[in-house]
Amino acid sequence: MSENERPHTHGGAASPPQDPFAPPEGGWQRIIGRHRGERPGPKLVCIAGIHGNEPAGVHALLRVFLALEERGIPFRGELVGLTGNLGALAEGLRYRERDMNRMWTRALVARAMQPLQTGKAAPGPGSGHDAEWAEVAELHRVLEQELDGQTEEVFLLDLHTSSADGVPFACIGDTLRNRRFARPFPVPVLLGLEEELNGALLEYLNDLGVVTMGFEAGQHGASHSIDRHEAGVWIGLAAAGCFPGPIPEQVEASRRLLSDARAGLPKVLEILYRHALRPRDGFKMHPGYENFTPVSEGEILAEDKAGLIRARRSGRVMLPLYQGKGDDGFFLARRVHRFWLKLSGLLRKMRLEKLLPWLPGVRRHPDKPGHLLVNTRVARFYPVQIFHLLGYRKRRPEGDLQVVSRRQHDLVRPARLEMRPPESP
Ligand SMILES: [Zn+2]
After folding, report:
1. Pick the residue with more confidence: 385 or 247?
2. Which residue, of 59, 150, 337, 379, is most buried by count of CB atoms within 10 Å of its CB?
3. What is the distance in A from the centroid of ligand 1 to the CA of 362?
4. Over 149-191, what HEC string results?
């Protein structure tokens, strides 16, 4: 297939075994590879290395592109692999100046795109448009080319690894379309994490109508992280519907690989608490915690200048911060039962969220569709679960009120994706 761009591989089959993390032949490229089927269909875009010290996803994608080319697997739609932070990948750093996965708000993207739009682009050190600003602008431009005007379903898989090793898991924003995509992945799926973070690429694209999922494979430098990412991409292709014929053997092998790593953990969990950090509060996580470590209410987890920090509720620790910079000390998650998932799916299909503004203390936001204003003095007696059931997970204060919002495109995709950059303010 001449249309398909040949991936930059690690050399021929005859070459001696080499470091699986060695930079690809030809260096790091924005477009890792592309595979297009003969028939139209869904599009799966995979992003690897939006944190530059997480190259495992790039290597995994190279393997998948090679296998698709060599095996001639019947295919519909398109797979595209993109790198996130090219400059940081080359230097092996998480980022150079700013975390590139906290810059995807309309305002920050508009600022990143400004020098391009005004034609005064002079990217380079000291121009005010270097490092991650330039990366965001360029990745946005590539995503525009890939996504704008798409009428078929578009899926986006964002591949990550972490400093500590652990069980692979997935994160999704809580829409029914995201849940459906995540279901065939035999890993724990975490709801509500993105809603706690601001400026993640997945939320930006999800809000435009893309089905999105983040995938954490394991430790940065572990070769099994490449294997798990490769498994994630194969399962993602099957979940997206890219295989019109029999499901290739790679998908079944991938499911086995990931379910062996799952270690009996719950299938779906939700974030219920975030321990936010302030600058110089001297936060120190106590040793012995990793993702999914169970904790009991009152257990001492960490300390800072104000004293000991105890678990506010029983659950499981997620993303404990042991090293480096960050705004989050840890999160607490708990299992979500299948009954609850079924119920919330049913209620959303019945569009019951339309009834929420009838509750005392709750009204529609006058300017923002999909947002509610909640008077917490009146509404504090409602369990937060009522809002979660109907997809309202994002909360932030606005004056005396709380604004709660849900993801758009919960049930149906937009007829046509619009991926134009936001206007600068
Ligand atoms: Zn990452």
Report:
1. 247
2. 59
3. 36
4. CCCCCEEEEEEEEECCCCCCEEEECCCHHHHHHHCCCCCCEEE
pLDDT for 16 beyond 60: no
Cα 20 to Cα 218: distance, rounded to the nearest angstrom: 15
pLDDT in tens, 230-240: 999 999 999 99
Residue 128, CA distances (Å) to 89, 124, 133, 134, 140 in order: 21, 8, 8, 9, 18
- Band (pLDDT 50/70/90 cuts) for residue 130 is confident
Q: Using a cut of 0.85, tell me whether the model's pTM lies above it.
A: yes
Full set of structural domains in the chain with CATH: 1-266+336-350+408-425 (3.40.630), 268-335 (2.40.50), 351-406 (no CATH)
Apex CA 93: angle with CA 162 and CA 185, to 5°? 30
User: What pLDDT, on a 0 to 100 scale, did the predictor assign at position 354?
Assistant: 81
- Calculate how far, in angstroms, residue 74's C-alpha sits from the geometric centre of ligand 1: 32
Q: How far is the CA of 9 from the centre of ligand 1 (A)?
A: 23
If pLDDT is split at 50, 70 and 90, which confidence band does 12 have?
A: very low
Distance 288 CA to ligand 1 centre (A): 22
Evaluate whether 190 touches 264 at the Cβ level (below 8 Å): no
181 Cα to the center of ligand 1, angstroms: 21
pLDDT in tens, 99-115: 999 999 999 999 998 86
